[in-house]
Amino acid sequence: MRLSTFSSTDECLFYVEAKRLKEKDNGLLSRYVDTGIDNYLTKKYPYGILVGYLIKGDVDATIGNINTILKKKNRINEVLSRKIHPIHNQYFESTHPDFGIISHFVFDFTV
User: Fold this and answer.
1) Cα 93–chain centre separation
2) How would residue 88 be classed by pLDDT, with cut points 50, 70 and 90?
3) Global pTM?
4) Which residue in 67, 51, 65, 55 sits closest to 108, CA to CA?
């Protein structure tokens, strides 16, 4: 997203990486890590949020499966953990040593 005006050259950039998610689809879950989380860690996107569109399954089980993938990659310190957010109840954060915190919002389209 880009916020700019006609009267100034200043602009604000905010990145939103969005991915489809299915609880039991390892391809989509691995993609969430490899081209979602890792796009921030490689500085393709220097800041922003990750959005997961859950189209099949349970939110917590899906996050658990993403965490399993991270653990298999020896990235146990980067697992997603549920946090409280004032505007969305399916909010998670992950902490990364050379990057900081990534915010994850999951939108449940299964209901």
Assistant:
1) 8
2) very high
3) 0.91
4) 55
